[in-house]
Amino acid sequence: MSPVPLRIGALPAPGYDVRRSGLRWLCEDGQRVRSGEVVAFCNVGLRPAAGSRSTRTRPFIEEEHDFQVAFAVRTGGILRRSDDSSLGGFLDQLQYYQIWTPEFLIGHLECAEVESTQGANDESLRLLMLAGRRVTALADVRAGLLTGWHDRSRAWWSDGGDRFGTLLCLGICEQRGIVRGEQSAFLEIFDAVAGPAQVVYFTDDALVPCASVVAGQLARSPDASREIAADFARSFGTGAVVPTPREWIFAGALLSSLLRSPIAEPQDLLIRGGLQRIESPDAVLMSLNAEPMFVLRHRRLGYTLHCHGFRIATAGPAIHAWLRADFEQVKRAPEDIFRDYCELIDAVRARSETTFLVLNVISTSGSEQVQCYAPFPRPLGKMFGSVRARELNVMLHDLAHQRNVAIVDVDAIAAELGSQRHAPDGIHCSGELQGEIRREILRLLHDRGVPGFAARA
Q1: Closest-CA residue to 205 (of 157, 148, 165)
Q2: Fewer beta carbons under 10 A from the terminal one: N or C of the chain?
């Protein structure tokens, strides 16, 4: 057996000192690990270097409490931990505990000769960078790898060339498991791609990213955002129903999401070669399941709002009173959703060349009992969810033809595996179905030439 040292390697950030916590291990000492497996992680942070006079905003300032590095081995073998990799307690959570030193060894692998040859590298660990932006600074959850309440979470391989491929994911809960995986840390998707690639996921906890909402966020000016915030402060806080603290939290999370544009947000990257900034995504993944039968439109300012019905139902009486007083319901037929998507795609592609992928909806169901639709009023899509699903999927085919959109055919994948077993409610999927959808997304990204998403050797 040949020992392969597990050295963390260089991670430079010009003008800053890179600091880290102790390690938290995901594998036991003496455990056999496979090539590419993530074995440990730590929190990291940037501090201005002595004498630095940079006037730019410090990178990762919105993610500084949930910025982490996961360590993946390049070859398989038996893991042997270093005795000084961890002291436990808060020292393994505080990101400014130690200086990042390239020569530090977290341990070594005992490998067969062929394995040690495959893993020969000056930096024998791959670094998977992860960052989460907290909805509130009070949501301090340091329980594990990328844990906590984040409105935006992302991950990227730190090694690679000059051209990163970025996938921006905007959908509902069906996307969460597909994109973030079983442990919610992007491990499955990054185990499959060679990189250099970044995946960014926006949650639908408060605001659902339907096409109309996302288009409005992208088009909104800073003055319009300030007007929305001022109107909210006047209306919500002075209404007939006094908001509870829980309602303020809900409303604050909703407003914070509404006034950002996920597509227009730049993102900083810390990689082996230093700091980079991504100004726009190479690909956007959306979901037809995010498109409702109606949205809420502000009566005076005209902006669009969409929240999950189950969220509104439990939000509280002050939220209900505010929505009733200030918003009206606007029905959305498939042709309206088609126009929303066209508007959004055209606006994004006016800024940069961007690939769009859209997950269609599951229309197959073994439990449907309707034998004849003749007695029911038209349009049938208002009466039957399965009919509306088929109408939306047909609309998506038209959109794919007219705007060169890639369809992620969830409907076909679920039908092949068995939708009743793997997606009994038509939305939430089993791990096996999520894995098949993930593979199809990666295939489409590679076929469309999005950099960084080729399969890992």
Answers
A1: 148
A2: C
